[in-house]
Amino acid sequence: MNKLRWNNDYNQGAHPAIIKALEKTNNESYCGYGLDEWCKKGADEIKKHLGGRDADVHFMIGGTQVNFTVITSALRSYQSVICADSGHINVHETGAVENTGHKIEALPGTDGKIQAAQIKEAAESFRVSDVKEHITEPKMVYISFPTEYGTIYSLSELNEIRSVCDEYGLYLFIDGARLGYGLGSPECDVTMEDIARVSDVFYIGGTKCGALFGEAVVILNDALKIGFRSYIKQNGAMLAKGWLLGIQFYTLFSEGIYFDCMKAASTEALRIKAAFEERGIKSYIESYTNQQFVILTEKQMEQIGEKHIYEYEMKLGDGIHCVRFCTSFATKHEDVDALIEDIAKL
Amino acid sequence: MNKLRWNNDYNQGAHPAIIKALEKTNNESYCGYGLDEWCKKGADEIKKHLGGRDADVHFMIGGTQVNFTVITSALRSYQSVICADSGHINVHETGAVENTGHKIEALPGTDGKIQAAQIKEAAESFRVSDVKEHITEPKMVYISFPTEYGTIYSLSELNEIRSVCDEYGLYLFIDGARLGYGLGSPECDVTMEDIARVSDVFYIGGTKCGALFGEAVVILNDALKIGFRSYIKQNGAMLAKGWLLGIQFYTLFSEGIYFDCMKAASTEALRIKAAFEERGIKSYIESYTNQQFVILTEKQMEQIGEKHIYEYEMKLGDGIHCVRFCTSFATKHEDVDALIEDIAKL
Amino acid sequence: MNKLRWNNDYNQGAHPAIIKALEKTNNESYCGYGLDEWCKKGADEIKKHLGGRDADVHFMIGGTQVNFTVITSALRSYQSVICADSGHINVHETGAVENTGHKIEALPGTDGKIQAAQIKEAAESFRVSDVKEHITEPKMVYISFPTEYGTIYSLSELNEIRSVCDEYGLYLFIDGARLGYGLGSPECDVTMEDIARVSDVFYIGGTKCGALFGEAVVILNDALKIGFRSYIKQNGAMLAKGWLLGIQFYTLFSEGIYFDCMKAASTEALRIKAAFEERGIKSYIESYTNQQFVILTEKQMEQIGEKHIYEYEMKLGDGIHCVRFCTSFATKHEDVDALIEDIAKL
Amino acid sequence: MNKLRWNNDYNQGAHPAIIKALEKTNNESYCGYGLDEWCKKGADEIKKHLGGRDADVHFMIGGTQVNFTVITSALRSYQSVICADSGHINVHETGAVENTGHKIEALPGTDGKIQAAQIKEAAESFRVSDVKEHITEPKMVYISFPTEYGTIYSLSELNEIRSVCDEYGLYLFIDGARLGYGLGSPECDVTMEDIARVSDVFYIGGTKCGALFGEAVVILNDALKIGFRSYIKQNGAMLAKGWLLGIQFYTLFSEGIYFDCMKAASTEALRIKAAFEERGIKSYIESYTNQQFVILTEKQMEQIGEKHIYEYEMKLGDGIHCVRFCTSFATKHEDVDALIEDIAKL
């Protein structure tokens, strides 16, 4: 019997509607490099959710690629990007941002989040410096929604961050690799329109949210739109058969899959969370999205590992560890039932 | 009626066997980042064609990405790469190689090719320089097989280039974005084993050769293997769902599609070439692979353009232009019949 | 007896007035990093020669450093710089510009110069391209005044280049490593005011023109002034004891040394040129500044080399070579007499 | 009356012997780019202090330039450098290291120092990681001797750090911008031979230690010697009139000035430290070199500021601040007397 995989949210292909769409269009021929009609249609669907803000939508292939391309396109070489110390760009992208020449100013996060006051302090510290040429200028704020720990910013937190960005002339870049899971969480009071309103640029994750691969970058701030296709190409991020990306996002958005499917996944994750709680097993961090970080003993890890694959995170103490269970767009209700049953036996 | 597209070789999806394979595995779950069993199987199939040389095979997403990642991983910052002035890295990658910090030393090509003697001259010029610290050191040779003009190096040309590389300690990197079309040309006396024997690193194009997307990088030289997965990740070129690449290359190679299909396409291209010749229309460059560059008058362009899409290349003189017609893995014999019929009427 | 050195123009210390000024101020204490009163005074002296244009003047240490710092500060990563194939940035700076991420678009020079029509062609080629994202955008023109071959642009040539730059939105950057020798040539119809009028940024060479070291960067275009001190610091080009640069330029400009001394050197160079001509020895390039490139036989090279050091340039044919003789701010009239005497004996 | 400057250690020219040497050689002519006899002589003097280790000595212009050039020459793009959070490269070089593409892994320092155990933990964390391609590989340790806070590592601390570096294959790079002040401290049990023994590369500061400008880079590890002159040139750090650097270091080392003069400065600094202590004013950090960080009230700051210039560091609490007083090679005993007198009156 195969074990069930809960270790991450990118271990299966795509939503069946996407496979069907790819199959259906496979013999059609298209214009290359994202200038085809599917990319246009995909972008148009996305634009319906931006509250009317004028945006450029670009389809790229993966998250790391989006992150460093957006950041390097926006900043001068002496400008830095502020993020939580647990931010993906700071810890899991092999120094990709630094490789483009920019310093990351990592602030201590709480549950994976940073707050407006912290950002203000960093920006103010630069503003009052009398050796500005000797230090990097914080010019962009990078946050993940949801965060790498599955937590989400509230609308008021986002609004406060936006205010600080306005006050100090900072760009706000929201990494939405798991955006759908955040928007679909019952604890979320933020909409995609809000995301578009508060950010200068954000991206809508596809890879972890129902697509085979692909991320949709949404640029709201005109200053950041300049030459972006050149940055995409130069960084090897322009898919020759761009329509493959357009079709996927069109499928996810035109049929509402993106919202429904990820909402279902977050809901399933909360069933898992509840099952752990019922069993008296604590969360490492209180997440209300598709990623659940729980604290297990080694015995529990061994027992649940017999039928289930989780991701090991870190040691917390003697015989006590943090592990991750993820649901995804592809998670089946009955598989969650099976997991819950096994959790109850721990 | 839709026009037939001959403008490039990446305007349709994938070989049907690939779509079928993706569909079949869509509900399976896999380990991420190219560490899955499909990538292993795909690599194993490729290794059968390397004449027994010990190689690392990595799957990446697109050609530009491969080119700059390979080059930057191989060179110190003061080292440069030699290529033909028409080389893809020199003219169609938005300065991606320079963006990684390296100078391209472009030599005047003949029919898209450079010769061993030219490379020797450039390398010798550095060797005898007494201001070595003031100039860049040529350390790698980049050639395309087939070239951007569809031409192919003969085995003896490749052997001579290899000799110069050995003499001067240069790496030889072969861009095989269209490798299958070259190997499948009736004029080709080179095998994939030869490619593997003469090069330090090369890549097998998938995007233009039957895959939805993807390129297989084959590293032969041990010095170039160090840390390559880190370079892939850092440059945003590591696909989260890496098995999508493995499956595609496994499908193309395990069933012989890669060789048969591209050979058929080159054969179809030669029928088009013959049709133009019969009609008295000259080639801009004599190509025996899937890309045909022909010289048309404006009237001919207009006439053929009624039913066919070609790629405009450049003006050659008063009312005389160079245009490109490509076949691909997806080209149908009957479509070529139709094109030939229309060529005859020019 | 020591041989006389004519091989370059940076083989002696500084004008005696500079040594005296450094000695006199050695026990004074100053504010660091170029924010002292001498840098202000040096800049003020330079500003007297800019025809009233509003400029930022920064003192840096050497030419390569100036070149790549100016270029990288001005360009986005997908933008390139146009220059003559013999341009210093293209051939003698170890790929420093590429190391900052930018492609150099080298155009074939004539006597070290490029013309407005060539620049227009390159810029137009980008303007009409329909694959702009796949190629680099030429955004800056780099010329040297005088050129690396000692030749100088006429005022009308500069005006024409400026026109093209205006038409295509290109920045004009003038490398004035040897500016004084150019302005001081009897063949020159250009003034420093002209240089300031036609360029967006230029620099006044000190290292080769009477200073121990140092170059004064003059930024005229407001867009290029942004954050320049940060770029200087980040690139390791900000001298801690910045007043050392300010004092040197103040000394050179406040006492007219910069103009008088370099004019004298160019005048002496023309005596050498005349001596070679009288002896029937041809110039490789007709230069009217301090660098003279002449064509010698091997026997002549040996004979003149007994008492004089020249710089070997390249082989021109069987037993025929191009060599360089330079004068400098430090050249003595009687040493030129001695050289001329020996030339006559060839 | 001019105030006395104590704010930094680079506010005056050079040791008089250097000015004299520059004056004396000003009319001599030399070979360029550091290939002259003075650079050889300067390097030879330095080599006498390396305990017989085989070293390459290169003269560069300033500290930031040395730091990023050494680091980028030593590391692959996915490798990072470990340092104290207060390390100069992390806080006062405008992101120069990141600009070359490398992440800095800043560890929390104690009194400006990091300990072997911290380095071991960071290196071990990478060693045991199972996602090595997703994170940067720590490959170099950067420490300053003395630190930016004037503190010094003991010999046993250095030996322990070296052991960890050996265990994990890390390079040790010692920033000796103020090396002389450290070696000359009465609390120091480390010699220059020790520095050369434990490090793979270090530099001997000149700018802050008696020279007009200049730093001597000493490369001990053969792997780091490769192509270093090319890195120097490419980064704009190769002085055309290189002998100016050679003369300065020859003068400082051949006459023992480097050791005597900096020792005197550290001794004077301890007199200042004692004066503050006597007056009941605490140090922010206990430094036994030329930089003294003391805690003053605003009233004290104002009073001492009437006749003396210090550097403001940071606010520590209500009305309580940290300020810096530095001595240097140029500090006069009687000026210290005057300062001490004024401290007593606080």
Q: What can you see in these coordinates?
A:
- 4 copies of one chain form a homotetramer.
- Chain A has 346 residues and is α/β, with parallel strands linked by helices.
- Helix content of chain A is 40%, strand content 19%.
- Chain A has 2 domains: 93 residues, Aspartate Aminotransferase, domain 1, CATH 3.90.1150; 240 residues, 3-Layer(aba) Sandwich (Aspartate Aminotransferase, domain 2), CATH 3.40.640.
- In chain A, strands 2-8-7-6-5-3-4 form a 7-stranded mixed beta sheet, sandwiched between helices.
- The longest helix of chain A is centred in the last third of the chain and has 22 residues.
- The first copy, chain A, is globular, with a radius of gyration of 20 Å.
- Chain A starts with a strand and ends with a helix.
- The mean pLDDT of chain A is 97.
- Chains in contact: A-B, A-C, A-D, B-C, B-D, C-D.
